[in-house]
Write a structure and sequence with these properties.
- The chain is an all-alpha fold and 273 residues long.
- It has one domain.
- 75% of the residues lie in helices and 0% in strands.
- The protein has eleven helices and no strands.
Length: 273
């Protein structure tokens, strides 16, 4: 794989992992659009590269959200040791852990019972379009709640939404944002929740996949370049959403999803691609 292609895929992964537009869908679409076939049908190598890019985005997100990670991590550990009342940051930490449980269980179930749907480009396009409309509709609702206002039943619901977003084109962060905004969370709180919920999931998926990874020596440089690009663009994506998008709303991103989905469907209907 050319270094430039690895960097481009890393940038796409990092930007789209935390913007609610589907990273797996965009990675599939970029390679489909440019007719890239760097892996030659080697699913193990392609999976290894995908894991490397996801770990890059994890590093970028943790670097940006390190204050929150330390804050809730310490509060959760303190509660485990003291066993005092579950309140404040300790309760929020417990809520975040609760969201990870259904996500993990659903993820394991999906891996063991379904086949890869990523090569169905039309389905990626339809998911981009449909869930773009959903995001636009729920973002019009008022938001007056924070993460700490959630109850544990709502945390389970959010975890289920994240776990069901396995199909490329749906977007894990988009699914969480849609449910969170539907539960009347304020935009910045919903976005921060989506990012924090994604961290243990990305880390866990990378850990599970790491046992089967085998990277040829000739691929080390592309892997490193793609991972670094994903880390930098992932950091920027979190910053962009928290500093700008939450103030103006997710309407622009929803519109982009719809336009992207319609464009891909139009290309599929023509001999251009």
């Amino acid at each position: 794989m050319p270094i430039l292609h690895a960097i481009l895929l890393g940038l796409v992964q990092g930007l789209t992992e935390f913007l609610p537009v589907s990273s797996s869908g965009h990675l599939a679409l970029v390679q489909w659009l440019f007719r890239w076939d760097h892996f030659g049908g080697d699913n193990a190598l392609e999976n290894a590269f995908d894991v490397a890019l996801h770990l890059g985005t994890l590093v970028g997100a943790v670097a940006y959200l390190r204050a929150d990670v330390v804050r809730y991590g310490r509060a959760g550990l303190r509660w485990l040791v003291d066993r005092g009342p579950l309140a404040g940051d300790g309760r929020t930490a417990a809520l975040l852990v609760t969201t990870a449980v259904p996500t993990g269980l659903l993820g394991l179930g999906v891996l063991s019972t379904t086949t890869d749907l990523g090569d169905r480009t039309w389905l990626v396009a339809v998911c981009l379009l449909a869930f773009g409309v959903v995001l636009w509709l729920v973002d019009r609702r008022p938001g007056d709640r924070g993460i700490a206002d959630l109850n544990f039943g709502e945390a389970v619901l959010l975890g289920i939404a994240q776990g069901l977003a396995f199909q490329p084109g749906v977007s894990r962060s988009g699914a969480i944002l849609s449910v969170a905004r539907g539960l009347h969370l304020e935009r910045e709180e919903a976005a921060r929740l989506a990012f924090l919920m994604s961290l243990p999931v990305i880390a866990g998926a990378g850990l599970v996949s790491a046992f089967d990874l085998s990277v040829p020596t000739s691929w080390w440089v592309p892997f490193a370049a793609g991972t670094l690009a994903a880390a930098v663009s992932g950091w920027w994506a979190v910053h962009f959403v928290l500093r700008l998008v939450v103030r103006v709303g997710f309407g622009g991103i929803a519109a982009y999803r719809v336009v992207a989905g319609l464009t891909v469907l139009a290309l599929l209907a023509t001999p251009i691609r």
